[in-house]
Amino acid sequence: MTIHRIRATELLAACRGKKILVVGDLMLDRYIIGSVSRISPEAPVPVVHVHSEKAVPGGASNVALNIGSLGGAGGVAGVIGDDADGRELSGLLATRGISTSAAQRDTSIRTTVKTRVIAERQQVVRIDWEDAFHYTPELLAAFRARLESEIAQADGVILEDYGKGVIVQEVVDTVLAAAAKRGIPVGLDPKENHILDVAGITLATPNRKEAFNGAGVAETRPTADPLTDPALRRVGDILLEKWRPELLMITLGAQGMLLLERGKPPAHVPTRAREVFDVSGAGDTVIATCVLARAAGASFLEAAEIANYAAGVVVGKLGTATCTPDELLGWMPPAP
Fold it and tell me: Which residues contact 261 (CB under 8 A, 6 or more apart)?
């Protein structure tokens, strides 16, 4: 099945105003963009002549931007430092209409900032500023109470785990319990090497490496057809049993996605990317689009196919990016 433009238009209309809360690690992405024409005489490294700079919300913040770009009402829940970078991040989110009412400030850490130096559309180096974050009992209790309040008004929740400390078991338990009361979908974008009990989530979107890691299986080389890849199928079966999601969507880069639902035959969705300039942020787009579409009434297959098209749009852009409804519909097939 390939979703067509008319059905996608209906679903995107239903997405408007749907409130999706993104819980996770909030970051600021900076880009220094320039060109290289010589090597430094001081060391064998390129000299980047800077043309421009920009800052955009990253991490879980970028997931919320993707939701807003598609017409949903995105909000973030996480922890940021009480510093200039944190204030800049909050301001950027506010200008894009993203709610930060569940974002808490912590004076003990600095806001996570990732600075990428880009030359000729290629990343030269990335520089990270971040502190290890650990909840105090008081901060964790306050954060969980805020989550319960926010989820009581939401249409969906996303757990966006970058392994920076916000997503811990107590937070996962609070999200799942509050979402179950409301009967809304919960999506998980997992982090490798971060073990959590997430049994009962609606959908999970690990990439191939994260899937093998989560299943505790040594990663193998992919075969030409994901449907007949024995190691990948075994990993899928393990994660279906371990995480108990309604849908497991393993993203496979150029091979598209493998969709697994308990009691149903697996499905393969081939990639829709036309050109690939930058894959950073593609996973953010996938989970954002999938949960938003599901909250709007899409079937799992429809949500996955729309997410696949949206990811195909953003990988054709430089840096952390989002997808608009017009961009999404512009390259979907018309109704048969």
Answer: 246, 247, 248, 300
Residue 284 among the catalytic residues: yes
Q: How far from the centroid of its chain's Cα atoms is residue 49's Cα?
A: 32
| Encoded tokens for 16 | 């408007």
DSSP for residue 226: G
Q: Is residue 33 within 8 Å of 118, Cβ to Cβ?
A: yes
- Please identify which of the residues 106, 229, 284, 326 carries the catalytic annotation: 284
Per-residue pLDDT of the chain (336 residues; tens, 9 = 90+): 578 889 999 999 999 999 999 999 999 999 999 999 999 999 999 999 999 999 999 999 999 999 999 999 999 999 999 999 999 999 999 999 999 999 999 998 999 999 999 998 788 999 999 998 899 999 999 999 999 999 999 999 999 998 899 999 999 999 999 999 999 999 998 887 678 899 989 999 999 999 999 999 999 999 999 999 999 999 999 999 999 999 999 999 888 899 999 888 999 988 765 555 555 567 889 999 999 999 999 999 999 999 988 888 887 776 667 888 998 888 787 876
Closest CA relative to residue 304, chosen from 316, 264, 321, 320: 264
> Quick one: angle between helices 208-215 and 230-243, nearest 10?
60
| Total number of residues shown for the chain | 336
Eight-state DSSP code of residue 205: -
Q: For residue 115, how many other CB atoms are within 10 A of its CB?
A: 16
pTM: 0.92
Output Rg (C-alpha) for the chain, integer angstroms.
20
Which residues make beta-bridge pairs with 28? Answer: 57, 113
Q: Which residues contact 124 (CB under 8 A, 6 or more apart)?
A: 36, 46, 48, 117, 118
